[in-house]
Design goal:
With 410 residues, this protein is an alpha+beta fold. It is 58% helix and 17% strand. The protein has twelve helices and twelve strands. The strands form four sheets. The protein has a four-stranded mixed β-sheet with strand order 9-12-11-10. Strands 3-2-5 form a three-stranded antiparallel β-sheet, with helices on one face. Strands 6-7-8 form a three-stranded antiparallel β-sheet, covered by helices on one side. Helix 1 packs antiparallel against helix 2, helix 4 crosses helix 6 and helix 9 packs across helix 10. The C terminus is likely disordered.
């Protein structure tokens, strides 16, 4: 037969007590030879051992006829004398009490789980269901042990746990439909039971602390259960369809976002390329403007330089090209001619009116000047000077730098 940890602990304590008693008994002396007077002490020792064993056995069995009793760990000892609850509360361990007068009972003050089974109830629609079990984790506070036992007795949990669970379950079922009890609000039953029990315990039995309530799924009629299963299947199919629709919508939205992102990217790239081309055009335009400005400035500077050169040349020529200088150049040009033609007429001649005018106006002075000028010319030109004195109105003709003497003579 299996023994509980409490019984094993009690047996261990009994063995320890027996060892202590044996250690206090003096060693047995060998009986004197031929004398039977030593039998008496041996009998007394045996009887004492038997009495102690019976005493410990009665104490460990929880009876009220023993002088020594034990309070297990996690409990406190509560006593009644003459049927009246005493205020004495003892801690775990061995304690003494008066047999037959004082009654002892260990009360658990640690966490304990009360299991309530087979709770029938009717829903708002009149369907009878039942809960197989409801587990209530609770604890009795040590400071309230006396007040709780004084008001509700040793079996206080029957009043505030077992009966209260039956009451609250029936109250909940009668206020809700089968759909709510079995499906919609089933996840709230645990908290509602805990709150309801704790609320009343706090008001009427403050020493009872409700830690938690666990309610199993109720048993419902098989035909209704099958309907719920079918409905759950349909709901599952609907949820699957909804989830598929959500997935399709998400995919479409994702594709839309991808397309928008791609379009935005292309637009940004196009904008960047356009800005780049505009910047290139603007840069080319500025470069051409700079080149044009440079060309205009260069042409203007060159034109100014040409104008300045022409002006300066004109000024120099005005100072340099005097009538005397021009006549000198004219005579030098005539002197450079290497051919003299004699004949009737030479066509296409050009006459220098200026030299002719100077000759007509100057007369002899002009001839003298011509003599001085042409004395360094070629000998062929001296023949022309001889005719100047006999020609009353001399005329000078030149064709391609050539002097025609025959025309002058006529």
């Amino acid at each position: 037969m299996d023994t509980t940890p409490q019984e094993q602990e009690q047996q261990h304590q009994q063995e320890e007590l027996l060892r202590r008693i044996r250690s206090q008994v003096p060693p047995r002396m060998p009986p004197p030879s031929g004398d039977g007077s030593a039998i008496g002490p041996i009998v007394l020792i045996v009887l004492a051992l038997l009495f102690v064993m019976a005493f410990i056995s009665m104490s460990s069995s929880g009876g009220n006829f023993s002088l020594v009793h034990q309070v297990p760990e996690g409990h406190v000892g509560v006593y009644w004398r003459g049927g009246a609850l005493m205020k004495t509360i003892t801690d775990p361990g061995f304690h003494l009490m008066m047999p037959l007068i004082t009654k002892f009972e260990p009360i658990q003050v640690t966490l304990q789980t009360d299991l309530v089974r087979d709770i029938p109830c009717g829903t708002k629609g009149g369907v009878m269901i039942s809960f197989d079990k409801v587990e209530v984790v609770n604890r009795l506070r040590k400071d309230y042990v006396y007040d709780t036992l004084l008001n509700y007795g040793v079996h206080y949990d029957k009043t505030w746990i077992y009966d209260k669970i039956h009451h609250e379950i029936n109250q909940f079922c009668s206020a809700h439909s089968l759909q709510q009890v079995y499906i919609d609000m089933f996840d709230q039953i645990d908290d509602k039971m805990k709150e309801a029990i704790q609320r009343d315990c706090t008001q009427y039995a403050p020493g009872i602390e409700i830690i938690g309530v666990r309610v199993t799924k109720p048993n419902i009629p098989s035909n209704i259960k099958r309907n719920f299963e079918l409905m759950e299947e349909e709901r599952t199919k609907a949820l699957i369809a909804i989830e598929k629709q959500k997935v399709a919508e998400k995919e479409a939205e994702t594709q839309k976002k991808i397309a928008l992102s791609q379009a935005e990217k292309n637009a940004q790239v196009s904008l960047i390329l356009m800005e780049q081309k505009l910047m290139e055009k603007d840069s080319s335009k500025r470069q051409e403007a700079i080149e044009n400005d440079m060309f205009v400035a260069r042409e203007k500077a060159q034109t100014d330089a040409n104008f300045y050169r022409v002006v300066k040349e004109a000024e120099a020529n005005r100072l340099k090209l005097t009538p005397e200088f021009l006549e000198l150049k004219f005579i030098e040009a005539i002197a450079n001619n290497t051919k003299i033609f004699f004949g009737d007429k030479v066509p296409n001649m050009i006459m220098d009116q200026r030299l002719l005018g100077n000759f007509l106006n100057g007369g002899e002075t002009t001839v003298n000047n011509l003599k001085l000028t042409l004395q360094f010319a070629k000998p062929a030109l001296e023949i022309c000077l001889l005719f100047l004195f006999v020609v009353p109105r001399p005329s000078w003709y030149m064709l391609n730098g050539t002097l025609n003497i025959n025309e002058i003579l006529h």
